[in-house]
UniProtKB/TrEMBL annotation:
Other remarks on this protein: In the reaction, the free carboxyl group of octanoic acid is attached via an amide linkage to the epsilon-amino group of a specific lysine residue of lipoyl domains of lipoate-dependent enzymes. The reaction proceeds via an octanoyl-thioester enzyme intermediate.
Reactions that this protein is recorded to catalyse: octanoyl-[ACP] + L-lysyl-[protein] = N(6)-octanoyl-L-lysyl-[protein] + holo-[ACP] + H(+)
UniProt entry keywords in alphabetical sequence: Acyltransferase, Ligase, Transferase
Organism annotation: Rossellomorea vietnamensis
Gene encoding the protein: lipM
Function: Catalyzes the transfer of endogenously produced octanoic acid from octanoyl-acyl-carrier-protein onto the lipoyl domain of GcvH, an intermediate carrier during protein lipoylation.
Protein name: Octanoyltransferase LipM
Organism ancestry: Bacteria, Bacillati, Bacillota, Bacilli, Bacillales
């Protein structure tokens, strides 16, 4: 039986506004039936802090530190918390809610899509597995996160290695289409990450950073060999093909499509109204 063919886009490093606009455009085009489901890999230039759709920037984010570090800044169309996109492989998956393999609930769809990421980690020789919040305290933590930092706690079916989170993902559903995107950390500058958020005082910041070390880890801290970006791309491309039982076919945007994305990037993701609206 032949496998279903999805599109594969490797965008390389793009601006924060272009990255979010392209994810949104792919969602639109897929909802209109113009393209099949898509898996996309990308990076960020400059390194960027992205915040979740519902985060309150003024209350949670230290914008002075963002500027001092020369970082880009953008609000995602998906939920979740703050992510520093620096030494990582970022992925997005765009697929209709009606796809026969996609469960109806967000949590279960998350598990199915994340199977591709799980296989990618295993292709890199890492013993990754899904986190399932077991205790009542962990489940409550999902409802009311204590921290604005994304990698601070594994949520349902988040991926962990040696008990620590290695990939953070967020999902939105619009126009009958699932968009899930996330970060696979290759390396991490913890001090930089923690300088980007606001805390009641230094003691709280130190306590959170200490706790963070026990909850999150970058791939190259737990891998026996240094994983490069190219190695990660190859492993996760293969992982998605295996995990979702699909074949990935490269796709290049037409000049018209590129122009559409650039216009959307300017109109929405570069506007203060979008990025600082909450």
């Amino acid at each position: 039986m032949s496998k279903e063919v999805w599109r594969y886009i490797d965008s390389g490093n793009c601006s924060p506004s272009y990255n979010m606009a392209l994810d949104e455009a792919l969602l639109d085009w897929h909802s209109e039936g113009k393209i099949p489901p898509v898996i996309r890999f990308y990076g960020w230039d400059p390194a960027t802090l992205s915040v979740g759709y519902f985060q309150k920037v003024e209350k949670e984010i230290n914008m002075e530190a963002v500027k001092e570090h020369g970082l880009g800044f953008v609000r995602r169309p998906t939920g979740g918390r703050g992510v520093l996109h620096e030494h990582e492989l970022t992925y997005s998956v765009i697929v209709t809610e009606e796809h026969p393999e996609m469960p109806k609930t967000v949590t279960e769809a998350y598990r199915v899509i994340s199977e591709g990421i799980l296989r990618g980690f295993r292709a890199l020789g890492l013993e990754a597995y899904f986190a399932v919040p077991r205790t009542e305290e962990e489940k409550q933590g999902l409802k009311s996160p204590r921290s604005a930092v994304c990698f601070d706690a594994p949520s349902w079916y988040e991926l962990v290695v040696e008990g620590r989170k290695v990939a953070g993902s967020a999902q939105t559903r619009q126009k009958g289409v699932i968009l899930q995107h996330g970060s696979i950390l290759l390396d991490l500058d913890e001090d930089k990450l923690f300088s980007l958020f606001k805390y009641p005082n230094d003691r709280v910041k130190e306590r959170m950073q200490r706790a963070f070390k026990s909850k999150a880890v970058a791939v190259n801290e737990v891998s026996s060999e240094t994983v490069t970006l190219d190695m990660a791309k190859a492993a996760f491309k293969e992982g998605f093909e295996q995990g979702l039982g699909i074949e990935l076919e490269p796709y290049v945007l037409s000049p018209e499509e590129t122009q559409y994305v650039e216009d959307l990037a300017k109109r929405r993701y570069e506007s203060d109204e979008w990025n600082f609206k909450r």
